[in-house]
Amino acid sequence: MAAARAALGFPSPAEDFQEDSLDLNELLVRNPAATFLYRAEGSSMIEAGIWGSPRFQCNK
């Protein structure tokens, strides 16, 4: 018995619109040695619209 691969079906029309993946480090971090990520906790910023456990980026 021999094994072989065969392409079946048809390609997705969305393949024409594929983009490269996003690298958030490339977009957001200018100086890796001076960039820190924090998770906020508490309720002091609810009135400012910041609730839950958001993540913040801080640059030194």
From TrEMBL:
Pfam families xref list: Peptidase_S24
Top-level taxon of the source organism: Bacteria
Domain Peptidase S24/S26A/S26B/S26C, first and last residues per copy: 5-50
Protein's UniProt name: Peptidase S24/S26A/S26B/S26C domain-containing protein
Transmembrane segments: none
Database matches in InterPro entries: LexA/Signal_pep-like_sf, LexA_repressor, Peptidase_S24_S26A/B/C
